[in-house]
Structure formats: structure tokens, C-alpha cells
Amino acid sequence: MEGPIAADEVLARFILDRSQLRADRSVKHNAFMPPPSAKLSVYRIVGLCDPEVWQLGNEYVANIRGKPLVGRAEIKALEVTNCDLSVEATTVPHPRHANIKGWKGDTEKDRLTAIKLASKAGTAKLT
User: Fold this and answer.
1) Before 93, cis peptide (omega within 30)?
2) Range of the domain at 93
3) Residue 2: which pLDDT band, with cuts at 50, 70 and 90?
4) How far apart are CA 123 and CA 90, in angstroms?
5) Greater model confidence, 1 or 72
6) 111 with 93: CB under 8 angstroms?
7) Which of 14, 67, 71, 116 would give a disulfide with 57, using CB separation of 3.0 to 4.6 Å?
8) Per the confidence metrics, is the pTM higher than 0.85?
């Protein structure tokens, strides 16, 4: 997918672990905690129908990680940038891939940011 990421563009964070969801399907902060690389993987899903989004998650996230796809959290790019983070489009492993960057590298500060992102993501969509 070409072009800059618009503020109102919806991003999908694929969830591979039920521990990242509450019983009411609300997203826990650990779904948005940055990995050691400080690049949190998301996918640009604008223009895709629901089955295409699930196929993207299965093929480029779940299968690669060897885990079943549990669900996805959706968040607008604006919510990410409102947390002093950025969203950078990449082409690896897929043209719709992007990374959330700009994490502080401080576990407590990053946890608080992840809590904000999870609250903005709301209720996850389940497979």
C-alpha cells in the first residue's frame, strides 16, 4: 500500500494470545506493549473487507509466528500519534505492514502508553 498514513486510517493489531483480551473482549495493554525492537507491528486495513483482513492476519502474522489468530484490535493512526508515537509504513513482510515507533524505552512509561492505546482500541474482533 503506497502513500502516507492518514490520521483517520484504521490500523489492525493482530492478537495471538487470549491473555491480551478480557472476558468482555476489551483489549488489554499487553497487546500494545512494544517488543525489544521498539517497533510494534500493525497492518493498514483501509479498503479491505473483513475476510481479507483475517487472511492478512493469518498469513503474515499467525502462520509466521506458528500460533493461531485469536482476534484483532483496531485503532486509528491519530490515536497513536496522540500518544507521542509515530506510525511508519513498511513493505516487509507485506505492503500493508506498518510499525508503531517512538517508544520511550522505559517500561513504566511504555506501559502507560500501551494502556492508553488499548483503551482507544476498545473491543477486539474475534476470529
Assistant:
1) yes
2) 10-126
3) confident
4) 26
5) 72
6) no
7) 14
8) yes
Q: How many residues does the chain have?
A: 127
Distances (CA, A) of 75 to 1, 78, 118: 18, 8, 9
pLDDT in tens, 35-50: 999 999 999 999 999 9
Alpha-carbon distance 76 to 98, whole Å? 13
Cα–Cα dist 84/97, whole Å: 20
Count CA within 13 A, CB hemisphere, residue 92: 1
Grid cell locating 96: 500493508
Residue 5 lies in a domain: no
Task: Give a yes or no: residue 49 inside a domain.
Answer: yes
pLDDT one-digit tens code per residue, 54-101:
999 999 999 999 999 999 999 999 999 999 999 999 989 999 999 999
What gap in Å lies between CA 95 and CA 60, rounded to an integer? 11
